[in-house]
Structure formats: structure tokens, C-alpha cells
Design goal:
By secondary structure, the protein is mainly α. The chain folds into two domains: 34 residues, no CATH class; 47 residues, no CATH class. A two-stranded antiparallel ribbon has the order 1-2. Strand 1 and strand 2 form a beta hairpin. Helix 1 packs parallel to helix 2 and helix 3 crosses helix 4. It starts with 6 loop residues before the first helix and ends in a 5-residue tail after the last helix.
């Protein structure tokens, strides 16, 4: 049973879903939309990291390199595409 008057339960459920890798949640009532949008939107840190990934990858690509390391992490096309998607969702500036 879903209690539409329990936003804390919705937040907990949505946070658990995001931690499991889900990118959104089905809302059955309008009062759930704002909470879910807030919890599934990229964080400031995720946006900044996405910008850093795209910038570093574009620089490497200009030099003919298709895989890079950034902050000790292996970065290749799927990570770059995710970063571009994050930027497109948040500000449209992919550069």
C-alpha cells in the first residue's frame, strides 16, 4: 500500500532506487513528482565531474587518444556519453 501522505517514505524509496542504478521512478500522484525529480536529478558534484570528464576526453581525443585516466579512474566512451547526457539534462552545454 502506498501512503500518498508520507513524503519521507517516498524519499527513502526513491533514494534506494537511485542507489541501485535506476534513473527515475514512476509517480502515481502529482505530489510525488517534485520529490522524485529532486532525488533523480544530477547533483552539483555529478555535474562538475561530468564537465571535467568531457573536457579531458575532448582534449585527449584531439590528440588521437580514445581512452584516458582521470582522477585514477578509467574513462572511455560509455562514461563520456553518460557525462554528456548529464550535461544535456542540466544545462545543455556539452562542449
Amino acid at each position: 500500500m502506498i501512503d500518498l501522505n508520507d513524503p519521507e517514505a517516498l524519499k527513502a524509496d526513491a533514494m534506494r532506487a537511485r542507489q541501485l542504478g535506476f534513473q527515475g521512478k514512476l509517480c502515481i500522484h502529482p505530489n510525488q513528482v517534485e520529490i522524485c525529480n529532486m532525488l533523480f536529478s544530477p547533483t552539483k558534484e555529478e555535474i562538475e565531474y561530468a564537465r571535467k570528464v568531457v573536457k579531458a576526453f575532448n582534449s585527449a581525443k584531439a590528440e588521437g587518444v580514445a581512452v584516458i585516466q582521470l582522477d585514477g579512474k578509467f574513462i572511455e566512451h560509455p562514461v563520456v556519453e553518460l557525462s554528456k547526457r548529464i550535461l544535456k539534462l542540466t544545462d545543455g552545454d556539452i562542449q
